User: Fold DNA-binding response regulator from Dactylosporangium siamense.
Amino acid sequence: MRVLVVEDEQNLADAIVRGLRRQGMAVDVSYDGTQGHEMAMVTRYDVVVLDRDLPGVHGDDICADLVASGALTRVLMLTASGSVADRVEGLQIGADDYLPKPFAFDELVARVQALGRRATPAAPPVLTIGDLVLDQAKRVATRGGQPLDLTRKEFGLLEELLKARGAVVSSEELLERVWDANADPFTTTVRVTMMTLRKKLGDPALIETVVGAGYRTRTPQ
Assistant:
């Protein structure tokens, strides 16, 4: 899941980013509305965690522009005001959910995960192919009943390929969905991570390379 955090309180923003990354999400961050607006409009995020009172471009305007663009991105709006009127106004602007500060981090994570499921075509919480089982909620994967010791990036690659249900997924798409904005688009990190993932999955192979196009899963014969 790709998430953008736009929050001008840097300590809070960094804490949110660290916490979401620990949940296996690819997270970018902006500390002002001007940059956040540009990032939100250029990159396809599943969820934007958006502070309402931002310097530069106001959070309301970022939210309104996302809605007007027709993007599937879901918006979780944060605000220091917890009044009912304020929440209603935020939702009327187009926010999908609203969370007043201060908040419990576990609740933030749960809300981001719920919105992320709404941002993409529905996929079952447990993905399977052959004897491989991947539980998206519990963040665990097994093959033949044995747990797989996957890194966050390996798990993310496998998750994206399984969600594609046999369709080809390009390296560029995998880089966008699993890594964040700091990833070098010319790096070999996807190929290297795919190599280690394949080794951990073992035989028979579940992932094949489509030359010049990307990768896809295949059901073992």
The chain is about 40% helix and 20% strand. The chain has a mean pLDDT of 88. Residues 105-119 form the longest helix (15 residues).
